[in-house]
Each structure stands twice: as structure tokens, then as C-alpha cells.
Specification:
heterodimer; A: 209 residues; five-stranded antiparallel beta sheet; three-stranded antiparallel beta sheet; extended; B: 387 residues; alpha/beta; nine-stranded mixed beta sheet; 36% helix; globular
Chain lengths: 209, 387
């Protein structure tokens, strides 16, 4: 068991009288940081090539053919998309491939005005989680919405996949260009790129950071 | 369980946007402050637990090893733990079971983060949490998952953005009394939050905690050591953690089941049957304002969808019935990922000892719960502390 180390006797100022919060770190402004002696800039060069795996390679092949494929687990009876060869809940192999629809409902969405590096986007993006028809309730995947005024997007809205033409499909999640409202009256006219210039829910004027 | 474990000391650095100090130096400052706070030296420490988030922030691979000297780990059993945002509370649990098991009598727990090194923005490191084959081609950014979860939470319950924004105001005001705070603002209003720039609707700039640099440390000791050292030990009464599936689009984001399971585990260990009556202070994880409410519900302190009402009614204020994030949290003090979680443990330590100064919750609180959250919206880590 543990070596019992000798502890110092408790004397002197009471612990609570000692400063437990140090104001130590010196705050550096960006300019100071950039001009500091010996400041080092470095970029990692790392490239990867990924196998897509047994389940996802089949899924991607399906997308290339304009189909959304799912796996069925007979034990929990879930139809799973994205598909996997094992059921993480029952911890057993899933049983068969099924084709689900390319339609669904918006489970949740966002209207995003910034890029990953916080630079503003001229045209907002609408990422969403789509519950896929034919899969089990609540099961779906993330994609983007298009051909719709951001102001008219709602949770529960019925949407359908807009596929790239067959000769442009490569076996990628991007073979689905975006999802658009099934209700044609909700679609934004003249926009087929899944983008919109709407000013809806426009950000307040950019403020000083 | 083997040995009873107490927190006997705590220390932290100020949280800043960009520190001149390296991660190693920040770790040293926090570790030394924690040891000094309980009059211990590094020789009194049997083992060291380090919590720190992705190596990608620092561009230093095996960052745990890199930081070890600053954390006081030279020549000692040492381990590093990382569960995304949940790290700061989870590293306390890691330290706890070293001591609870009887393996060691003391453990120095250190959490550090230096996010300013990532150029041009720490989000560059976060992007790689998305699925490499199916999600990254969509060009996601980290705000997406928060915005998607927040919208789901608001839509299922029909919540008003105003009630959620009030959390940000509360925490930034609470942080005004915190000497280590980056964003304490005594005069901020709900309208300031609602008028701030929309980043990814419904997330606006002031709904979000800032990227920061900083470190926190606490000292854990077995009962027989703790009682010799202090007459005010703060006991780790219960711990819990739980992970949900990484297939995050296959589950309903409106409620964090994994936080509930972690909380139930911790409450059971602590002998808590009615958390709403027995918990006097909560330090839930608040990287975004809605997350605090979401987590208070997962911690079983409010019914699903009812935490915003409690916010509106003042229940969560420092002088309310259930003070929540009296420290000022990630939204107010700052969010150096792992350090921010451990700050919540340190805050409960100071609050339960009555040493929280301007932030002190009135009414002699006896029990508190700290919680953190992370990975791909899937991990809940919970610690119950009492005096």
C-alpha cells in the first residue's frame, strides 16, 4: 500500500488567509504577442487518408446511386442511419440493409453567419438534423437546408433531398446537395444552390469584439 | 468504498484571453497556490492527476507529459485524463479514486488550458471532433452543434430566448466579484445579450463563453490526513460519470440523459434522495447560457423545460433558493476548457468553507454539486461535495 509520507505540522497563517487565487498570468495584447522576442509560429503539416469502413462504404455507394441505405437491428428493431455493422445498444451484429426514403423532417436547425474561424459569411448556412423517413423515429443525420428563406424554416418542417446529377455523384455525403422544403410554397424562388440572400434573422450590426 | 476523500486546498490563476505564461507555467502557478492554501509541499503529495484538453490546442503532442513538470509530477505516479469539456470535473474523479481506493493518501489535481496558441482560432482544433467521413465535408463549425442543441431545447419546450439570455447576465454579474474573471460585468443586461451579434442562430455572441488561458488545482486527501490538516475539510461525497452514443443525430438533444445518469450515480453514492432539497449550490457547466439550464434539468434539480422559469423567478441567483454558478462560471470567469471544469470544484470548496468573499452564497450552504459536459455532446461528469 501507499508509502506514508511525513506531513508538515500545521502552523503559521491559517490556510484561508493565504491567497488561493493568483493574479499571476500576464495578459498579452495581440500586438505584444506578435512582437515578443522569440515568438514562434508553426503550422502542423498532417495529411490523412481514411478508409470509410464496411458500413459507411456501402452507405456512400448507395448515395452515389441516389439511395439512402440503413441497417436494421432485429433485436431493438431500430432502423439505423448512418448505418453501422453492429448495434451499439444490443452489442450484436445488425442484420440487414434496407433502403429508406430521401425525405424527412427537420429535427433541429441553425442559421449560421460565421465560418469556423469566426469570419462572417456573406450568405448564411442552415445546418440541420434531418429525421429520415423510414428510419426509426428520431434517427437521422446532419446536413444543410437550401432553397428556403431562413425565416420560414421550422422544427418539424418536411424536407426532401436535392441530389446532384448522377454523373456528378462520387460517393460522398455531398452527393446530396442539400435538403429543401417538400412544400413548394416554402421554397425560395430562383435559388437552386441551397443558398439564400434573405435578411431574415439577420445579425445585429457587427459589434466591436 | 475505501477511504473517505476530502478537498483540503485549492488554487487558481486568473483566466485571461492570452497569457504570457506557457501551459507549464500556468500549471505551476495553480499547483503552487493550491499547495500553499493548505500548507503542503510537493513532498506531501503521493500522486498527480492532470486534466487538459486536446493536444491540438497547443500543437504539442503528448501534452500531459509536456505539462507534468509544472503540475508537480516529477518522480511521482502521474496520469492525464481528457473527456473534452467534461475533463475538469472528471480529473477530480480520477484523483478521487486513487485516494478512495487506498492506493494513495494524497493527490494533487491540476487542470490547465492554453487556447490562445491555436491560430487563427481555437475552433480550428474543434472541427476535427465531427465525423471525418460524413460530417466534415459539410464544413461544420463548433457553434453548429450548440446551436442545433439549443434550438431543439427551445423548440421542444417552447422557451423564450430572453429567459435563456438571463443566465449569461447572471453569470457575468456573478463574475464581477471574482478576482480571476475575464468577463465579469456588473452592469450587463438581458438586452445587451439579445442585441449582440448573431453567430449561429439562436446562439449570439454574448450567449457564448470566451476562449481563455488559465489553470486550477485542488488537493485531495484521505480522511486521516485531511483531519490532521484542517478543521474544515470539504468531502467528496459522490462521483458519477456517463457517456452517451457518438451517433448524436440518433438521439434527442433536448435533454442530456447522460448527465442524469451521472447525477444519479453521484447522488446515490452521496446518499442524496431528494437533490432539490439536499443540494444547496449548483455549479453546472455553462459554456453557453442554455447549457446551464439544460444541465440543471439533467442534474434533476428542475423538471424538464422548467429551469428557465426558475431563472426568471430568481431561484438561480446568488441569494435565490438554489444559487447556480455563483462563481460566474465559464460565461463570466472564462473558459479554459479543463481548468474551467476544475474551477467549479474549487468554487464549491470555497463556498462550502465560507471563503468565497464577494461571491459567498448566504445561508451556510452545506452541500453542492459540480458538473461538466463534453465530447460530442455525450459525456456527463458530476461531483457532489459537502462539509
Amino acid at each position: 500500500m501507499s508509502p506514508r509520507r511525513r506531513l508538515r505540522s500545521v502552523e503559521g497563517p491559517k490556510p484561508e488567509e493565504r491567497p488561493a487565487i493568483l493574479l499571476g498570468p500576464r495578459y498579452l495584447r495581440d500586438k505584444e504577442f506578435r512582437s515578443a522576442v522569440g515568438a514562434v509560429d508553426f503550422a502542423v503539416e498532417a495529411r490523412y487518408a481514411w478508409d470509410t469502413g464496411v458500413a459507411i462504404s456501402t452507405y456512400l455507394r448507395g448515395l452515389k446511386e441516389g439511395k439512402i441505405l440503413a441497417r436494421h437491428c432485429r433485436k431493438c428493431r431500430r432502423i439505423l442511419v448512418p448505418p453501422r455493422m453492429f448495434c451499439e445498444q444490443d452489442f450484436r451484429p445488425t442484420d440487414r440493409w434496407v433502403e429508406v426514403q430521401d425525405t424527412g423532417r427537420v429535427n433541429t436547425f441553425s442559421i449560421c453567419y460565421v465560418r469556423w474561424d469566426m469570419e462572417p459569411l456573406k450568405i448564411p448556412e442552415i445546418p440541420a438534423v434531418i429525421e429520415i423517413d423510414g428510419a426509426s423515429p428520431g434517427i437521422g443525420f446532419m446536413h444543410k437546408l437550401g432553397e428556403v428563406d431562413p425565416d420560414r424554416v421550422s422544427v418539424g418542417m418536411e424536407v426532401q433531398a436535392v441530389w446532384k446529377p448522377p454523373d456528378e455523384r462520387v460517393g460522398s455525403i455531398l452527393d446530396i446537395r442539400h435538403f429543401r422544403p417538400r412544400d413548394a410554397s416554402l421554397r425560395e424562388k430562383g435559388s437552386s444552390r441551397g443558398r439564400t440572400k434573405s435578411t431574415a434573422r439577420k445579425p445585429a450590426a457587427r459589434r466591436k469584439r | 468504498m475505501g477511504q473517505r476523500v476530502a478537498v483540503v486546498g485549492a488554487g487558481m490563476t486568473r483566466f485571461v484571453r492570452r497569457a504570457q505564461e506557457t501551459g507549464k507555467e500556468l500549471s505551476w502557478q495553480a499547483a503552487k497556490a493550491a499547495l500553499d492554501s493548505c500548507e503542503m509541499t510537493i513532498d506531501d503529495i503521493d500522486c498527480v492527476a492532470m486534466g487538459t484538453a486536446p493536444d491540438a490546442f497547443d500543437g504539442v503532442h503528448m501534452k500531459g507529459e509536456y505539462l507534468s513538470d509544472g503540475a508537480g509530477a516529477w518522480g511521482k505516479p502521474y496520469f492525464r485524463t481528457y473527456v473534452g469539456g467534461g475533463t475538469g470535473v472528471f480529473v477530480t474523479i480520477q484523483g478521487w479514486y486513487q485516494v478512495a481506493s487506498g492506493m494513495f493518501d494524497t493527490c494533487l489535481v491540476v487542470a490547465e488550458e492554453k487556447m490562445s496558441s491555436t491560430q487563427p482560432h481555437a475552433q480550428g482544433a474543434f472541427i476535427t471532433i465531427f465525423d471525418n467521413i460524413l460530417e466534415r465535408p459539410l464544413g461544420p463549425n463548433l457553434l453548429w452543434i450548440f446551436a442545433l442543441e439549443m434550438n431543439r431545447y427551445m423548440s421542444v419546450h417552447g422557451l423564450e430566448k430572453r429567459d435563456i439570455a438571463a443566465v449569461s447576465v447572471k453569470n457575468k454579474r456573478n463574475a464581477a466579484g471574482h478576482p480571476a474573471a475575464l468577463l465579469g460585468e456588473a452592469d450587463i443586461t438581458v438586452d445587451d445579450v439579445l442585441n449582440s451579434e448573431v453567430l449561429a442562430w439562436p446562439v449570439q455572441r454574448l450567449d457564448v463563453s470566451p476562449v481563455s488561458d488559465g489553470a486550477v488545482a485542488v488537493v485531495l486527501a484521505a480522511e486521516h490526513v485531511a483531519k490532521r490538516m484542517t478543521d474544515k475539510p470539504v468531502w467528496v461525497d459522490g462521483v458519477g460519470w456517463h457517456l452517451d452514443t457518438a451517433y448524436w443525430t440518433n438521439r434527442d438533444l433536448y435533454y442530456p440523459d447522460y448527465v442524469e445518469y451521472a447525477a444519479r450515480m453521484a447522488y446515490e453514492m452521496a446518499g442524496i434522495r431528494e437533490p432539490r432539497k439536499e443540494i444547496h449550490i449548483a455549479e453546472p457547466y455553462d459554456p453557453f447560457d442554455y447549457k446551464e439550464l439544460h444541465h440543471l434539468e439533467g442534474l434533476l434539480l428542475f423538471d424538464k423545460g422548467k429551469a428557465p422559469e426558475a431563472m426568471r423567478d430568481g431561484v438561480l441567483n446568488r441569494d435565490g433558493d438554489l444559487p447556480s454558478t455563483p462563481s460566474g462560471g465559464l460565461l463570466g470567469v472564462g473558459n479554459p476548457i479543463a481548468a474551467a471544469g476544475l474551477m467549479k470544484i474549487a468554487e464549491l470548496f470555497w463556498q462550502l468553507r465560507g471563503e468565497a468573499g464577494a461571491r459567498q452564497v448566504p445561508g451556510d450552504p452545506r452541500r453542492g454539486v459540480a458538473q461538466a459536459w463534453g465530447d460530442l455532446m455525450q459525456v456527463g461528469t458530476v461531483v457532489v461535495m459537502g462539509k
